[in-house]
Please model this.
Amino acid sequence: MRAAKLLLTIACFSALLFSCNRSGSSTNKLLIYTPHGQDMLRDFVAQYKTQHPQVTVEFLDMGSREILERVRAERNRPQADLWWGAAHTTFQTAAEENLLAPYRPTWNANVPESSRDANDNWYGTYQTPEVIVYNSDAVKAEEAPKDWDDVLDPKWRDKVLIRNPNPSDSMRAIFGAMIWRFYKDAGTPDKGYEWLRRLDANVHEYTADGTLLMQKLVRREGLITLWNLPDVWIYKEQKGFPIAYNFPASGTPVITDGIAIVRGAQHEAEAKRFYEFVTTSEALVLAAKKYYRVPVRTDIDRSQLPAWMNEKVNAMPLDWNVLRKQSGEWLRYWDTEIRDHNKQ
Model:
C-alpha cells in the first residue's frame, strides 16, 4: 500500500512538473506567418532575440493569400501568433471572418484612418506601389513600357513574365486594377477580361513565385513583368540583377501592407511585444533603408528615408472594397477562361 501511494505521489509530482515546464516554455515561443522573405525575417528575428534571448521565434514564409487560407483552416486550433504582412484587403477579409484579435499599438494615432482597421484588428505598416519591370540589359530605357497598355504591344509577344496571381496580393491588386479601370464605368468586368486576354497573348510563363519571376527575367526567359517596387529594389541593389522599372504613367495600385495578431493565439503577449518591436520608428527606418519598405506612419522623419521614397507616387484611385469582394470571381474567370488560352 505504501509503495502504491509513493508511486502515485511521484506520478502526480511528475505530472505537475511537466505541466509547469510546458507552461513556462510555451510563454517563450512565438510563431509568425509572413510573406516578407527570409532575409528580412531572419534579420528582425535575430535583432529581437538579442533583446529577448529566452524567446524561441519561428516563422513560416509563404504568400499572403496562402496565409489567409491557413489561418482559416486553423481557426479552431490556431497555430500562428502573429501575421506580419498582407495587403489591407486581405486583412479586411480576415477581420470580417473573425480571424484576427484586436490590438491597438502605441503608435496608433500616427496612421491614417485608411491604413488601419476601425476595430483595431490590423494596422498598416508599409505602402507597396506596383511597377512595370524590365531587364535593363536587354531592353533600352526609351523602349521599355511606360504604361499598362504598352505591355500589350505585340512586340512583347512571348516576352512577358507574370507571377501567378492567385496566391499573390501584389498581382491580385494589379489584375483587379486593370479590370476596375473599365468596371467603374461599364459596371461589368468584360472589357477588363479583354485586357487580360491581350496580356495573356504576350505572356511567356506564369511563374509560381516572385523569386522565380526575377530569376527568369534576368535569364531573359522573358523581358518584361509587373511586380511590386520593394522586391524590385532588393533584386536590383542587393543581388545586382540588371533590372529597371517604370511607374505606369496613368497611375498604379498602392497596397497598404499590414500586421495583425491571430485570434486565439497561444502566445498573445509575445506577439504584441514583437508587433511593437518591428513597428518602432527605428525598425521602420531600417526596413526602409535595407529592405525598401515605405513606412505608413506619418511621424517618421522622412529625411532618414531613401530619396526615392519621398517622390510622389501617382496612386491609381480604386474602390478597394469592390476589388476585395469581386477579385475571387474575377480570378476564377481568368484562371478558367483566359489563362493560356490566347497563344497564336
Summary: The first helix runs from residue 2 to 26.
